[in-house]
Fold these 4 entries.
Entry 1:
Amino acid sequence: MKTTYIVLFAFFATLLSCEKSEFLNKTPLDAITEVNFWKTSQDLALFLNPFYELFPGWSSHDGGPFWRDNNSDNMVPSVYNTRLGGVRALPQTGGGWAWNNVRNINVFHANYQRVIDNMGGRTADVDQYIGEGFFFRAYIYFDLLQRFGGVPWYDQPLGTADEALYNPREPRNVIADRILADLDQAIQYLKPDAPDFRINKYVALALKSRVALYEGTWQKYHAGTPFGVQNATPETYLQQAVDASLQIMNAGRYQVAGSSVADYVSLFNQSDLGANPEVIFWKRYILGFNAHNGQRFLSIIGGATGVSKSLVDAYLCTDGKPIAVSSSYEGDANLTTEFRNRDPRLDAIVFAPGDPINEDLVFERAPVHLGGEANTTTGYQIQKGALPNKQLQQADFGSTTAAIIFRYAEVLLNYAEAKAELGSLNQDDINKSINLLRRRVQMPDLTMGSITVDPRWDFPALTPLLNEIRRERRVELACEGYRLADLMRWRAHDLFVNKRPKGAKFNASDYPGFSNINLDENGYIDYYQDILPNGYQFKADRDYLDPLPVNELLINENLIQNPGWPNQ
């Protein structure tokens, strides 16, 4: 496909993501040709615009960013996740093995020098767009790394006759190194203060922190398994995660926003995050342009999903102790007692009785008795991101709630975890990372010398410190889409294999006339009781990576299938 057509199709696809004024200033579509393209820095911007659509956000009819944990043990969607269930089919084609984005970004890399030559040298704007090109290639390849592990590496566009199309897969650590190298280039080129809604240097540092932590912990916890890395060096990646995080932390331009749980809540339900000091990068939605129905799905209906009992139980009590040992815990006979004296972030992500739904309604009970999209599967109805505004909830495409792509809290959590994995974490490190998050919601500090033993720790073989760091990550980032990647890199299948996710204690008096709700032997909602009688059947020797599609293996005999998956 010629470059011209790539630009045209991508440009059509991205119209809704661009500012109106930006669109009006573009070259007319019928005027874009190879003759007049690759001439100015604006051509570089135009070509890169579609790649911003790779960032996750809201679609028209869903819970947007706050349903992204539906693929993990944090949430219980009405249709269970086939990866956790161990029932994924071997694809003949597709299956995420897609290379169009790689090719398109390599078209950019093959042509940006033409702009430099035409302009008589590099400018700050040209450098910005070169940096974006390196960033997006890293971003695209990081998605492939998480899906498949090692893949072929391409840094130039290929034609249909190129022998490189039949390259074998590179080892995953080689791909990780090249991703990080691209991010280093991006950091060098990107402006610290980029134009609105374009990535800057700190976005690239945040992604580097994420990638390095992912690869470092993957190599550490998958050592000796079919997914391990030969001659692994997890410490190298963990140190890169520390260094990238620290560059952001030391820059002084981002901070944990606010000093109350209300500030935590407002992070996720606002339309304009431009002045929020915690948000590193975000996605904007505009009425009449690209608005969505997110507030309807997060407020007045259950959305056919729900938060799991496992996630709810992870939240500490206000005395800083886990529910298994805290005298402040009042039990889970109902949501009112269960949420009382708990980390305020729990009520910030799950509706409790008395919480406002909008100006006319308050939450009384979760709609576990309803069908379809109205249903809440667990009795814990997600509240994160919800705004109690009736007009937004009832208007078609009336929601403009923003989507956070990178926030400072993740950077702090990456820093603390990487340092703990390296064995170099001290109290000062905790105070400038995890304790900043706890203090915002008036939770007690995490103190290294006085961690309360939790008999229900998820990872009893690990140190108390690592258990609490992982807990903090889970509760702070709950329902934002981090959990599956965390489970995969930690090799944490023991948390869910042969188990079914449960919900709240069911009180029949709250639902008179309804008796067809699946409950376990202790009276907890057990939504998957019939469809997963033996619990999740994730296969630890197979399901940590996706399979390569059959047709690709037939076309390219140099490709090797991932462990545990057949070739056909």
Entry 2:
Amino acid sequence: MPGVVVVFVFVVLLLLLLVLLWARSARTAHDLLVSTPRTLLVTAHPDDECMFFAPTVLELLRRRCSLFMLCLSTGNYRNEAEVRKKELLRSCHVLGVSPSNVTIIDHRELPDNPTISWNVQLVTDLILRHVKEHRIDLMLSFDQWGVSGHANHVAIYQAFRYIYVHKLTPPGCRMLCLHSVTLLRKYSSLLELPLALLQPHVLLCLARCSQYRQALKAMMCHRSQMLWFRWLYLLFSRYMFVNTFWDVSKIELELCGAIPDSR
């Protein structure tokens, strides 16, 4: 009996801790998004906006932030560029992103290919052009692992790093990167939430049930990509439910060895 009481008290305290962490995280997210109402999401391929960033996209739109999307390729890996461009625009419509706020880059030096490293200077120039054109306050994209390790994802982080190191952002503009996690955590679905709350982060976005359904509906627009394993991804990937971001400055400190790897 005493053991049951101890377990009960432990569970209650753990739940209380998670509630407090969630409240703090929600307050931090509110403060950040209120102070940075114009956001640029930089992705590598059509479907990235659903597979990796849906909780964030939907949270930004729920808070009435102005969201601009820059997709740096047409997804032409299997010569389906025109199909995938249309799929992306349909997906954005389902998510609530205005088509006029979506830019799709079709450039021969930016092919959809996991074995080809993109021209970082070109990526940097494209990003900075959009930051200036849309008066961006907040830039979002992948971190140095690119979630899946895809070379095109990593190239965007390298451009973010170049912008950070050379101080090329406008005053007050922040750069946040989506936190890559280990394979086990990546496919732990909502079980990942306690770890996400406990781990340091600048921004956490959690999809509500209605938002998760909306993200699924948006992903269904990418019919050319719906192979059997994608269904498993939609069910089990933490990125369909929760996004955590950290600042480029923290990543650079970690890469320099000043902060231990927190993955």
Entry 3:
Amino acid sequence: MSDVYRFGVSLEKPLIEDFDLHIKAQQYKSRSEAIRDLIREELLRKKWTEGGAVAGAIIMTYDHHKRELVNKLLDIQHDFHDIIISTQHVHLDHNNCLEVIAVNGNAADVEKLSTGLKVLVGVKHVSLSVSSAE
């Protein structure tokens, strides 16, 4: 485990009271854990906006009976083979499929892949969740 550094934080009373309510609602064990998560989230947001490396998952539902949709989905995934780690395909019912695409790469490329899937006719929903790749 890496070294842990301690530092002080000064906050106004209303802000710390709101923060303590957040900590309790999220079931953190300490303020330090909550602050670490907030810092990680902000650094991830910075990486995302600056095009840094991210890892995550694209979750997609679609109607596999839509004409040529499956071929288009496969073509797009092959175009992004360098950032796709794996895919998992689930048959939800006779018409609908769920696909989970694990990704690792440049944030801009991950966003481009997600958007490319989202705009296809027959794709019902696309959700992108990312985290730091480091």
Entry 4:
Amino acid sequence: MQDFLRPNYDNGCFADLPALIRYCLTGEPVDLPAATQWGDYLRRYDTVVLVLVDAFGWRFFERYADESPFLQHFVRHGKVLRWTSQFPSTTTAHITCLNTGLTPGQSGLFEWQFYEPALDAVIEPLTYTFAGEEKPETLRQAGVDPALIYPAPTYPQTLLQAGVQPIVYQPREYTPTTYSTWMLRDAVVRGYRTVPEGVANLRHEVTEGQPGQPRYFFFYTGSVDTIGHYDGPASPQFDAEVETVLFVLQRALLEPLLKFAMNTLLIFTADHGMVETDPQTTFYLNTDPLFAGIERLLRRDRNGKLLSPGGSARDVFLHINEGLVDETQAFLAERLAGKAEVVTTRSLVEQGYFGPPPFAPQFLARLGDLVILPYAGESVWWYEKDRFEQKFYGHHGGLTPQEMEIPVGLLPSQ
């Protein structure tokens, strides 16, 4: 596929992080080619601090590295690796990977929204709601058991069993939710109001706490991703948000860690990158006359309503009526020529894009039959008033280098 980047599982992919971090804290053997890339940094530590800035892909590391003391410290005194995201390049797949140690195919949570066969509905697993609804937690209100949606066991559980204390810092609006309660039930969870507050609290706990056991800290911020979506990754608002976050990380975390934290590894990374999009040029499959007749090809739920796609405007997963996959692929490929690739999900599964087997039992049924992968700057989606619309000026989920390449920075303390 032209100008697309496949995920580099086992040899420099986000999915390699849980096993490598576990080795650093427990000494549990790790059989990954990616381990050699860490060199002398792959050793035992008392504390590992993982900082994830959502959407801060490699393109942004290159953009800001020369001007940011925080990033320069990794360049000059540590190691910076150029790795790949998983596919899809979406937050759901990557946060779930950190919480379970599983790839998208293994966890079954591969995108922001997907069709759940057990409910005959499209859902959003992170917000635990039916897709298209603004109110979160509607699945809980409907009495849906989280065990039906989410995988187990969790990564924090395996760390705790190995004698490591997992501690997670995340925004208060996610603390608690059904997702975080399920995934982080064996971790200590600290909610924060603002990034500076969260980083200051993290710094205090890392440097002044009295660890009686190895500790794993995971700090997540989604503010850069949010601004990138709504203002675009080339906007002054995006610059301001990135510069603020990096400044806070430098002054309130990195400098104190280097002075006071003993035998600590600081890891800086992102779940994915971001590419520019334009709401004015989005193709809508169900309203654009270009796609007239598509209704005959798409599956419907038990009530006869067309299934809205899974994924996002950068990776559109479609469920196709039996026997019509080839026809639908040709139908879409002709109309999206020069704008997007249209491929079967089976071919991507067989080529390892979702990670290695074994897959979650419900994964293939959730995945659908075809996926539309727009080229850089393009977007394809579904329109339903007040439910589905492409409003973003920056997006991710696809396979372009802008979305798929991420930095992994390693910096040990004294």
